[in-house]
Each structure stands twice: as structure tokens, then as C-alpha cells.
Write a structure and sequence with these properties.
With 882 residues, this protein is an alpha+beta fold. Helices cover 32% and strands 25% of the residues. The strands form 7 sheets. A 6-stranded antiparallel β-sheet has the order 7-6-11-10-9-8. Strands 14-13-12-17-16-15 form a 6-stranded antiparallel β-sheet. A 5-stranded antiparallel β-sheet has the order 1-2-3-5-4, with helices on one face. Strand 28 (774-776) and strand 29 (782-784) form a beta hairpin. Helix 11 (424-468) packs parallel to helix 17 and helix 18 packs across helix 19 (725-737). It is elongated. It comes from Streptomyces montanisoli. InterPro entries: Bact_Sigma-Reg (IPR052016), GAF (IPR003018), GAF-like_dom_sf (IPR029016), HATPase_C_sf (IPR036890), HATPase_dom (IPR003594), PAS (IPR000014), PAS-like_dom_sf (IPR035965), PAS_fold (IPR013767). GO terms for molecular function: phosphatase activity. One of its GO terms (biological process) is regulation of DNA-templated transcription.
Length: 882
């Protein structure tokens, strides 16, 4: 593939890493390309853009290997700004859809250009390039800028793979006194910012700092320097007047005389990992007594908005410490602001409450104080005012709303076990802190939703590909479960419904802990399955949790009654199952072709809850899984019917012929076919007379098999009417021609076999256009046993005759179809002569051994699987026993 200039394509960006692979034009290459891109980008530490890159690669490689029908060249380039992925095919004549063709990429109803539409939606930049030998679509995904306080971790990399720094890392050390005047300025500070120590010492640090003032607060650099500890980003104006973004860590110290000062460590913003520290608990200084951290310090230097869980958890911990509470909690509002979802708690059973939802203002158990600050002196006097605290032993609580531009985004609360702990002043103090953190929380929440949405899209793309890759019913059930556990749920159960009159049947159970699967399956088998309701969406199902809790209670009572331990009495699995199943359980209907074909059940461990975004993703997956499951069911049913009908075309069993050995080998071409255009038969006509036939209908597959059935059954019927071989074939010829447009020509070898008293066998044979039967004598000679005549199904008038062949003891008659003689390897063909050479080596072998040797020779003649049906019939008259 001719490549354009790399520097031109990347717009002069410096390429720091690259990887490339080529994928063959076949369906499984799409999944292989996705895996290649995912592994490459994750190895480079570009996890922020992996999901988008996988989705776009899937679309573009599909266009290349499926639609264009050529190999796909995939190349990943790592640049300073992000990553670039290029997908090229070898079909430059295939143009990109444009408006003139009627398939604009902007037309959402079009079946063309979907990959380019995704590029336009997800990529920072994208384009198409042509050369005489290839067409290339590329897209660029820029890495997101890290806001103040971002904390991230990458994989452990070998030294050779670590990024190369432009220069040595410089850490500016600046020391300022109590009045924020510069006292010290090291050489790295001079190298970074261009000022010498003489130019800075004695001047306020604010003369050089570009401090990002927070709207609505008076927090400035002087206030920040007076805090005991502060980390974050701001700017320093260098000697040229440009602002250099820096990441700083400020630590307040005192000298031996007790004079305080602040040491500032500053690095370039993108080198923040050098001095960045992990989240810290709220500081308490010991000066004779503990004091609570200043409210300003509660949120300055908190984890960055893209670390939502860390930000929320740190917020509740700092809030609790700030008001000296026993517990704290933070809830986020849903998009419609009708419910609040528990996202972080401290001092409460958070594992049981996480992602639980409570209404804001309507009905029983409402969260009545969500929109305004509220203080409850004693929850015992107003039960249910704060549903999250019911049954926790908390008596007093202060709650404040989180608002962004007047819109409710959440609620923050601090609680204590004693009544009357909080006042309006403390509520205002907490509200002030909530106002400072609300925007960061909302930004992080939106970022999390966006990442989840893009990750969901990638997940569904791969799930659809896996589900479409199999038509096996059991494998589809297993894939459904493996895709949900542990990604969406802790455990999963799939119920299937055979038809409208059948009850749901438990078909598959999976738990993330394999040791829990048997206990979970036993528990679900004892309870009634969920109702097959076709209403879309997830609905709660309490039966598993109720049954698990009852089982745990019985186990505990048994232990108390018998005095034996759980391990010794066998109740351990029940208790373990109760903990594994005791959380929230939801049921999603599996609806395909307007019929409920089953239910997908997802569960969480004890008292855990699903978040709404996960349930929406599970609903999308259930729709795809339902269609895949129904397709597998239909395929299994049709395959079973097809195989049953095909088996009816084969002889039920071969008769035992006194004095003659018989062996038949049959192979039908095509996946799932048991019968094709080749056929055989061996049947008694009357006492001492047996008919045998081997034929080949034009073509393969079901159409040829239909003529096969006509020929085999007609032969038996006509032969038993007492007709000779030529008359049988002439009437069969007329029956084939009567089929009209469905008729197919047929080559047929038909004969009648009569064992003789002297140990030989007499055969009357008619060969109608079929490969000639070969006779192997005891001396190793091979010769044709009949002459060729006109095939059947072509003309009305046939002039057929039969020939008589005698098989002496030790002789073999070999009859084959052209799938044997026309076996090819390139330009070579086995042919009649090659078959005769193989048969000549079979002297003294039984009929079964002769047929097996012929088959082995045919299979070894070419490496590729046989493309034609094949039948082998061997008749041998054994030598008399000594």
C-alpha cells in the first residue's frame, strides 16, 4: 500500500508511537480489528478515547472487509494531541457516499455512510484520502485536557516504553513569608519563568501569579498561602509576559523561631504527577485541642471533576468532619429532578444504600427538604423526613441542596446520633461549602454520563457482534449471561419460554463467583419464575431476595437449635447464597417478533442497588439478546426438521446378504446437510435377489435431495413389481421428466444381485451415464464391469440394456459417484485411472477396508474440504473358509 507522507497526514504533529496490522476480508476480522485497537491504545495509556476509537474502527473495518470485500489495513498513531487511526481498503473505485448519489452521510435513514456519520459525531478531525491503489479513512481523537487536581494511573510499563521528556523535569522552589513576599527563588524557577532571584526576592508572589479567582468568593493567592496545605493549578507570568500553566503544592512551615512561611513547589502543569499527592483526610492540627479544618480547605485541592466517586466520597467525609457529625451523605438528582440517587455516604451502611432512589417531593417517603436548607432537631418526632436515615439511629440532621444555575442537582447532609446538634448557622456553613462544590460535582457527573454513554456504545457494538456470531441456542444463552456478569450485575439468570402455552423455564445461571452458581441455581429452582410481562423496561422482582433471607433465617435457627456451626451442619452455602442474592433484583423481558420468549434476570449482592444508566444499558442489551436467542431457536428448529427429512431419504438399514460383504460410505457436501444429490440404496427384491443402486443428481443441497427421494423410492417400487433393470430405469426417467421445471438430470448405476450356490455372485447391471463400476480380481487386476449408457432426465426415449457380471470368491465390485473421481487439487484430478490404481492395492481386504482405503485416498488427494457429495459402495464375495 502506498502511503502518503506521515508528517503531512498528522499536520506536523510529532508521532511518539505507532502500530499497524492487516485484516483479511472476512467477518471475524472486524472483532479482531477492534481488539487490536483497544489493546494498542490501552497500552499507550489512552483509555480516555478507547471506546470511541473501538466504535469507529468497527464501522470502518466493516466497510472495508464486508462491503468493499478487500483486506483492511489498520494503523494507530500516537501524537502529542491524541491518537489517530487510519483504516485503508484496496478498493479505491468505491466512492464515499455524497449527496449526488442519494445517500448523503447526513441522511440518518440512509444505509450508506454510517461510519462517516459516526466519525463526524465522535472524532476531533477526520477525512478520506485516495491513491490509485487504496482508499483510506482516518480519524483523530484528541486526549481530553486534565483539569486542576486530576488524578490518574496508567499501567506498569517497561522503561523502554516510558515517554521521553523534552528536557529534565524542573521543580521550582519558591518560599514566601507571612505577607506572601518572595524569600527564596531557586535555579529551576529561573529556568522555568525567566526571572533571576534578584528580580523576584522581596516582591509579592501575586505580582507573578495569574490566580484563577473563583466567582462569588474572595479566595485569592494570599488566602491560599495561609492554608496549611494546598494543591492546584494556576499560572505564572514569565519574563516575556506569557502565562505558563503550573501545578503547585503549597506547604506551610515554621522556622526554629516560630516564624511561619510557605514553601511552594511548582512544575509545568503537564508534569503535575511529580508533586501531586493522593487525597487527604481533613487536616486537624494539634495545638492543645483539635480544631476542624477551615471550610475553604474542605474542597480546595479535591479530586478533579473527572473522578466523580472520589470527589463525592471526599466531600461527604470533609462535610462530616467540618460539622463534627457522625455520618454524612450526598445524593444526586435524576435528569428530571423527581428523584435523588444515593452516591456517597460515610458513617452509614453505604454498600446497602448505594444507587438507591427516593422521591423528591411527591408521595410517602418523600425527601421534603431537598430544595432548601433544612435542620431537623429530632428525626424521632418527624419519621421519614430523611428516608436515607431511617433505621440508622441518627437523630439530628442538616441538609442543603446542590444547585447549578438555580437547578437542583443534588443534596448534601450531615447527621448526628444526638438530637439538637445543628443550628441555622451550621446549615449556612454547609450550604456555603455545597455552593462551592456543586459546579464541580455537576461537571463530573456529566463527564461520567458521557463516558458511560460512549462506553455503552462500545459495549453494545461488541455484544451485537458476539450474539450475531452464533446460531447455537445454548451458546447464545451463555453469551448473554457472560456479557452481563460482572459488567452489569453480580449474577444473572435467563428464563426461556418455548411457546405461548409453556411456563418459563430456568435455562442458565451465572454468578461472578463460580462457587455461588450451584447455590444460586438451587435457590431459583425452588421459587416460581417471574411473570412474562411484555412491558419494556426493568421491573423489580423481590422473590429471590425474600427466599434468600428466609433461607438464611432458617439456617440460623437450625444452628441455634442444634448448636452446630454453619460449616459443620451444611448451612454455609445457604447463608452465602443469601448474601449473594439479597440485593436488588430486576427482570427484563426478552421480546422478539412481538412475543415474550423469556426473561433476563439481573441481581446484586445483599442490599445493593442498580443505577439507572446500567438498567438502560441492560434494556438495550436485552433487545439484542432476545432477537439473537429467537434466531437461534428458529435455526435449531429448522435444522432439526431439515435433518429429520434428510434422514428419511437414506435407507433405514442395509440388509444382510448371504455370501456377500457390503460396505457403504456417504458424505454430503455443505454444512448441515445429511443428504445431497448423491444417493445409494440396497434392498431385497424377492427371495435370493437384491437390488442395489448408486446415483448422482445434478447439483447439491435440498433441491438435489428432492430428486434423490423420488429416485430411491421409485426404484424400490418398480423393482418389486418384477420389472427388469432397463424397464425400471425407463419408468424412473419418465417420472423425473414429469417434474417439469423442477426436474434434474440423473446419472444412475442400477443392478440386481443374485448370490450363487458355488460361492460366486451374479449381477445384472445398467449404467445410465454414471461412472463405471470397477471389478477387482484376486490377481490384483482392475477392469470396468459395465459399459456407459444414456443418463436419465434428459430425453423421453431411452434404449437401455443390462449387462451381466460375475463376482468370483475374492472379487470386489466398487461403485462410486463423481465426487470421488472428480476430486481435484489445482489442475490435478483423481479420475478413473487414479481410482483404479488405489483399488488395485486393495487385494485381500474386506469390503469395509476397501471402502475406507478409497475414502482415505480421496481425502488425502487434496487439502481443501470436498465441495461435492460423495458415495462409495463396495460389494465383495469372500473366499470360502478353509
Amino acid at each position: 500500500m502506498a502511503e502518503p507522507d506521515v508528517a503531512t497526514r498528522t499536520r506536523s504533529s510529532v508521532i511518539t508511537a505507532r502500530a499497524a496490522a492487516t485484516f483479511d476480508p472476512e467477518g471475524r476480522s472486524v472483532a479482531a480489528a477492534r481488539a487490536f485497537v483497544r489493546d494498542t491504545l490501552q497500552g499507550w495509556g489512552c483509555s480516555d478515547v478507547v471506546d470511541d476509537a473501538v466504535v469507529l474502527t468497527s464501522e470502518l473495518v466493516t466497510n472495508a472487509v464486508i462491503h468493499a470485500g478487500t483486506a483492511a489495513d489498520v494503523r494507530c498513531l500516537r501524537t502529542e494531541q491524541g491518537v489517530r487511526v487510519e483504516v485503508a481498503d484496496r478498493y479505491p473505485e468505491r466512492e464515499v457516499p455524497v449527496q449526488a448519489t442519494g445517500h448523503s452521510i447526513g441522511n440518518l435513514d440512509s444505509e450508506h455512510g454510517r461510519g462517516l456519520l459516526l466519525c463526524a459525531a465522535l472524532a476531533s478531525r477526520w477525512g478520506v484520502e485516495y491513491t490509485p491503489s487504496y482508499k483510506q479513512v482516518w480519524f483523530q481523537l484528541d486526549m481530553p485536557e486534565r483539569p486542576v487536581g486530576t488524578r490518574s494511573a496508567g499501567p506498569l510499563l517497561p522503561t523502554a516504553l516510558l515517554p521521553t521528556a523534552d528536557d529534565r523535569v524542573r521543580v521550582a522552589v519558591v518560599q514566601v513569608d507571612e505577607s506572601a513576599t518572595v524569600e527564596g527563588w531557586n535555579e529551576d524557577a529561573q529556568a522555568l519563568f525567566g526571572y533571576t532571584a534578584e528580580q523576584t526576592v522581596g516582591k509579592p508572589l501575586s505580582d507573578f501569579a495569574a490566580w484563577p479567582h473563583t466567582p462569588g468568593t474572595s479566595m485569592g493567592i494570599v488566602e491560599a498561602l495561609r492554608l496549611s496545605r494546598w494543591e492546584g493549578s494556576y499560572g505564572i507570568r514569565n519574563a516575556d509576559g506569557r502565562v505558563i500553566p503550573v501545578y503547585a503544592s503549597h506547604l506551610r512551615v515554621r522556622d526554629t523561631q516560630g516564624e511561619p512561611s510557605t514553601v511552594c513547589l511548582l512544575v509545568r502543569d503537564y508534569e503535575r504527577a511529580v508533586i501531586q499527592t493522593p487525597p487527604r483526610q481533613a487536616a486537624k492540627e494539634a495545638n492543645g485541642e483539635n480544631r476542624t479544618a477551615d471550610p475553604f480547605e474542605v474542597f480546595i485541592g479535591s479530586p478533579a471533576p473527572d473522578d466523580l466517586d472520589g470527589l463525592l466520597q471526599r466531600t461527604v467525609e470533609r462535610s462530616r468532619d467540618m460539622l463534627e457529625g457522625d455520618a454524612a451523605f450526598l445524593l444526586l438528582a435524576t435528569d428530571d429532578e423527581t428523584e435523588l440517587e444515593v452516591r456517597a455516604t460515610t458513617g452509614l451502611p453505604s454498600a446497602r444504600q448505594r444507587f438507591a432512589r427516593v422521591p423528591v417531593e411527591a408521595g410517602a417517603g418523600r425527601y421534603g427538604s431537598a430544595r432548601l436548607p433544612a435542620v431537623h432537631d429530632d428525626l424521632a418526632a418527624l419519621p421519614g423526613a430523611v428516608p436515607l436515615l431511617t433505621g440508622t439511629g441518627m437523630r439530628s440532621v442538616v441538609t442543603v441542596p446542590l444547585k447549578v444555575e438555580g437547578r437542583l442537582t443534588g443534596s448534601l447532609g450531615v447527621a448526628a446520633e444526638a438530637p439538637g446538634r445543628y443550628s441555622n448557622e451550621q446549615a449556612l456553613r454547609l450550604q456555603f461549602a455545597a455552593d462551592r462544590i456543586a459546579l464541580a460535582v455537576e461537571s463530573a457527573r456529566l463527564g461520567e454520563l458521557e463516558r458511560l454513554r460512549r462506553g455503552s456504545l462500545s459495549f453494545l457494538v461488541e455484544a451485537s457482534d458476539l450474539l450475531a456470531g452464533t446460531l447455537d441456542h445454548n451458546q447464545t444463552l451463555a453469551l448473554m449471561s457472560q456479557m452481563t456478569v460482572p459488567t452489569l450485575a453480580t449474577w444473572c439468570a435467563v428464563y426461556t419460554i418455548a411457546d405461548t402455552s409453556s411456563e418459563p423455564e430456568l435455562s442458565f445461571v451465572l454468578h461472578e463467583d463460580e462457587e455461588r452458581i450451584d447455590g444460586l441455581k438451587a435457590l431459583l429452582s425452588r421459587i416460581s419464575p417471574p411473570e412474562p410481562v411484555p412491558t419494556p423496561g426493568a421491573r423489580l422482582w423481590t422473590a429471590p431476595a425474600d427466599a434468600a433471607h428466609q433461607s438464611a433465617l432458617r439456617s440460623s435457627m437450625r444452628e441455634l437449635t442444634t448448636g452446630s456451626s454453619a460449616a459443620g451442619s451444611g448451612v454455609g452455602p445457604s447463608l452465602a447464597t443469601a448474601a449473594a442474592v439479597g440485593g436488588e433484583t430486576v427482570v427484563l423481558p426478552l421480546v422478539a417478533r412481538n412475543r415474550v420468549i423469556g426473561m433476563l434476570t439481573l441481581g446484586k449482592p445483599s442490599d445493593d442497588h442498580f443505577r439507572q444508566e446500567i438498567l438502560e444499558l441492560a434494556e438495550d442489551l436485552s433487545r439484542r439478546a432476545a432477537l439473537a436467542l429467537d434466531n437461534a431457536r428458529l435455526y435449531s428448529e429448522r435444522t432439526a426438521i431439515s435433518q429429520s427429512l434428510q434422514r428419511s431419504l437414506l435407507p433405514p438399514e442395509l440388509p444382510v446378504i448371504p455370501g456377500v460383504e457390503v460396505e457403504v460410505i456417504y458424505r454430503a457436501a455443505g454444512e448441515g446437510n445429511e443428504v445431497g444429490g448423491d444417493f445409494y440404496d440396497l434392498f431385497p427384491i424377492k427371495d435370493g435377489v437384491y437390488g442395489f443402486a448408486i446415483g448422482d443428481v445434478c447439483g447439491t443441497g435440498p433441491e438435489a435431495a428432492a430428486v434423490t427421494g423420488l429416485a430411491r423410492h421409485a426404484l424400490r417400487l418398480l423393482a418389486r413389481e418384477g420389472l427388469g433393470g432397463p424397464a425400471v430405469l425407463e419408468r424412473l426417467n419418465a417420472a423425473i421428466l414429469d417434474e417439469g421445471a423442477r426436474s434434474r438430470f440423473l446419472t444412475l448405476l442400477y443392478g440386481e444381485l443374485r448370490p450363487q450356490e458355488d460361492g460366486s455372485a451374479l449381477l445384472n447391471v445398467v449404467c445410465a451415464g454414471h461412472p463405471l463400476p470397477l471389478r477387482l480380481r484376486q490377481d490384483g487386476s482392475v477392469d470396468p464391469a459395465a459399459e456407459p449408457q444414456t443418463l436419465l432426465g434428459v430425453m423421453d426415449d431411452l434404449d437401455l440394456y443390462e449387462q451381466t457380471v460375475t463376482l468370483d470368491p475374492g472379487d470386489v465390485l466398487l461403485c462410486v459417484t463423481d465426487g470421488v473421481t472428480e476430486r481435484r487439487e489445482g489442475t490435478r484430478m483423481l479420475g478413473d485411472d487414479g481410482l483404479a490404481e488405489v483399488l488395485a492395492t486393495c487385494t485381500g481386504l474386506t469390503a469395509g477396508a476397501v471402502a475406507a482405503r478409497i475414502l482415505r485416498a480421496v481425502e488425502r488427494f487434496a487439502a481443501a474440504p470436498a465441495s461435492d457429495d460423495m458415495a462409495i459402495l463396495a460389494l465383495r464375495v469372500p473366499e470360502p473358509q478353509a
